[in-house]
Amino acid sequence: MNMNPHEIAENIMLFFGPIYIAIPIVIGYAVHVLINNPDIQQKLQSEIDSSLPAPTDDDYLRRVSEIKYLEWFIREVFRMYPTATIGDLNRSCVENTTVNEIPMPKG
């Protein structure tokens, strides 16, 4: 399959566009949960404070990924507000078509 630079750019936007839209939605729901649940906010802040070294530490990103309560919190936000999941932003063809000789059925 050969695509010109314009077609490549369009495909990249189709792929990253929904992610770009979903990130602020997820952040908004996370903030909403934290504001309305100060006990969760305090526990999450305590866990982050005790788990993270100074931001200049080379292991900073690895340590962020190991904060289990943060991971559980984010997963719970996705569970409580499923409209924020990337899966809800799937695209489907509205009619049978062919793109670069590749058939794409409706649906």
Kindly list the characteristics that best describe this protein.
single chain; 107 residues; mainly alpha; two-stranded antiparallel ribbon; 4 helices; 6% strand
Proportion of residues in extended strands:
5-15%
Biggest β-sheet: strands ordered side by side in the sheet: 1-2
Overall pLDDT, averaged? Answer: 81
Give the strand tally. Answer: 2
Radius of gyration: 20 Å
- Overall 3D shape: elongated
Order of helices and strands: HHHHEE
Q: Helicity range of the residues? A: 55-70%
| Count of distinct structural domains | 1
**Broad structural category:** mainly alpha
End-to-end C-alpha gap: 23 Å
Helical stretch tally? 4
Largest sheet: 2 strands, antiparallel
Provide the low-confidence segments as ranges: none
